[in-house]
Amino acid sequence: MAEYKDLEPRHLVVSYVRLPKELALIRLASSRASLFEENERRHQKKARYWWVSLGALIVGLGLSTVALLLHT
């Protein structure tokens, strides 16, 4: 199972507490955007695996149906 990235709350408090509000918000938005992009790649990879699994399931069901029809 893939680990998804998220922000570290303690790091944010320590790093951004003394910054001006505007700068802190810019840095927060920037770090959230980069994490979102990294997690998006993981979501796409997971979706591809899901489609491959679904295709394999459909092929397996089709072949088992044909086998049952030919057997009887």
Protein described:
The chain has 72 residues and is mostly helical. Helix content is 82%, strand content 0%. It has helices at residues 9-16, 21-71. The two termini are 42 Å apart. The mean pLDDT is 88.
SSE layout and pairing:
Blueprint: H1 9-16, H2 21-71
Question: How many strands, which pairing sense, and closed or not: the largest β-sheet?
Answer: none
Question: What's the N-to-C terminus distance?
Answer: 42 Å
Task: Show unreliable segments.
Answer: none
Overall form: rod-shaped
Keywords:
rod-shaped; mainly alpha; 72 residues
Write a brief caption for the model:
By secondary structure, the protein is mainly alpha-helical. It starts with 8 loop residues before the first helix and ends with a helix.
